Model the fold of this input.
Amino acid sequence: MSATDFAAAWAKTGRAEAGYVNDPSDAGGETNFGITAAVARAHGYMGDMRDLPKQTALDIAKQAYWDVLSLDDVAALSLNVAEELFDTGFLSGIAMAGHSFQKALNLFRRADAPVPLYGELAEDGNVGKMTVYAFSLYMLDRAEHGELVMLRCLNAQQGCFFMELCRAKPMDEKFVFGWYFNRVVI
Done:
């Protein structure tokens, strides 16, 4: 486990998640450092969200988004991919991040080859040992451009998610420009 890897991911995600916000048009509701009141309560914080200490927010973010997505293991293969998955999970939900990763890995497994790199992953959103193992094989096979292509695929999926979200919930259009500006990086 590398606290440095999580700190690097937080530095990128946190740039867009600083301070207390209670925008009535945000379906996430009241947040501080990007942590929603619901997530804070689920992790034991019962105080006023305005008073959420930054360290508590960091601890919650690590437990709720980094650890749940097995990002220490992913970071051992690619810190950039781990940072992208953390950011996606933080804004769009861990299931969305996990599904996107598994869909990309399934897409790139060379199923048309006589022997695919790995078996098809269940796209259940749970980044566990099989998903990390598939990613390790993918990175070995696609050594020169694997990381870049994976990042592009993850960002493309996140961008499509934002479009579909705003189509379903037009009130989120208020935020979509910032999401693309801060989150979809190519």
